[in-house]
Specification:
By secondary structure, the chain is mainly alpha-helical. Helix content is about 60%, strand content about 0%. A hairpin with a 2-residue loop joins strand 1 and strand 2. It starts with 7 loop residues before the first helix and ends with a strand.
């Protein structure tokens, strides 16, 4: 079933709500940093708001959106704030169930859950009479729990910073589960590849040199975004270096010269002047330049002609 297209009344109501919040934020926080263009955009938004509330027409809606975009361009480029972020920041969850399902509090709730799970797994790990299957699973589950806890801590810090700056957007926080899963997976991979036990041949584990697997798992979840960005950049460079397409690719042509100030077409670059012809043979004691062919005229054409006609 396709979503219904909102009516003009619904679009105007939503636009007026976000525009009203943006105008309130600008009047309260931005007068000292605003330039003349931003102040003009603010005045235009106030006038468009009054017109849209008095006349619910398509023209008033378009005028309101245009005025909103002009002011939002200043607030977003300066503070990363616009009407929707103000609305999502000031929105309060309804009831206890709303607080549990709110994306602003989910990282903290999941962080407490993974913290208790990590402590429980470590308590079972110290239990000497645990079953064999549990003894083989616990060393893998402990870094997963601590990695997920680190990812929850990073998400909670990011959401807290955006809430304090009134730049929180609910649409940007829909991938909470994916971020927590990536943190847990990265912590498990780090534990398996790096934190290996010594085999008696002089190879020491990372825990023996003062950096334990729990700290590594937590840091992997805490910096999961930066680690994955670095890995993607590294792998893309390797793929470009070893792929035949990347090796045979010719370098791109140089960019065209920028247009002159005030608009118009960019000047066409002139080719370098051709090398002068070699001097003719020296005869009768005269110089070589006297016997060399005459240079072409400035405007091109036959060198045997001038502006006055044929020689």
């Amino acid at each position: 079933m396709q979503d219904q297209v909102p009516t003009l009344t619904e679009r105007l109501r939503c636009a007026c709500e976000e525009a009203d919040l943006l105008a309130w934020y600008f009047a309260r926080h931005c007068p000292g940093d605003a330039d003349e263009a931003a102040s003009t955009a603010y005045s235009g938004l106030i006038a468009a708001l009054a017109t849209a509330r008095d006349n619910e027409t398509e023209e008033s809606y378009r005028a309101l959106m245009e005025a909103y975009h002009k002011l939002a361009w200043f607030t977003y480029s300066t503070y990363e704030v616009h009407g929707r972020s103000i609305r999502d920041t000031l929105r309060k969850p309804q009831g206890r169930l709303g607080r549990l399902t709110d994306r602003r509090t989910q990282p903290m709730i999941w962080g407490v859950v993974f913290f208790l799970l990590a402590l429980t797994l470590q308590a079972f790990d110290a239990w000497n009479t645990k079953p064999a299957w549990l003894a083989s699973c616990i060393p893998l589950l402990i870094p997963v729990a601590w990695g997920a806890l680190g990812a929850c801590a990073a998400l909670a810090k990011r959401i807290s910073d955006r809430l304090s700056a009134t730049s929180y957007e609910d649409n940007r926080m829909r991938a909470l589960t994916a971020r927590i899963f990536l943190g847990a997976a990265l912590a498990l991979v780090l534990d398996v590849l790096v934190f290996v036990e010594g085999d008696g041949t002089g190879n020491e584990s990372a825990s023996e040199i003062g950096f334990g697997p729990i700290a590594g798992a937590f840091l992997a979840g805490l910096f999961v975004q930066h680690i994955y960005d670095a890995l993607e950049t590294f792998m893309s460079r390797i793929s470009r270096a070893i792929s035949p397409e990347g090796q045979s690719k010719t370098p791109p042509p140089p960019p065209p010269p920028p247009p002159p100030p005030g608009g118009g077409r960019a000047p066409t670059p002139t080719p370098p002047n051709p090398a002068p012809p070699p001097p003719g043979p020296v005869t009768g004691g005269s110089s070589g330049a006297a016997n060399s062919p005459p240079p072409p005229p400035a405007g091109g054409g036959n060198p045997a002609t001038t502006q006055g006609g044929t020689l």
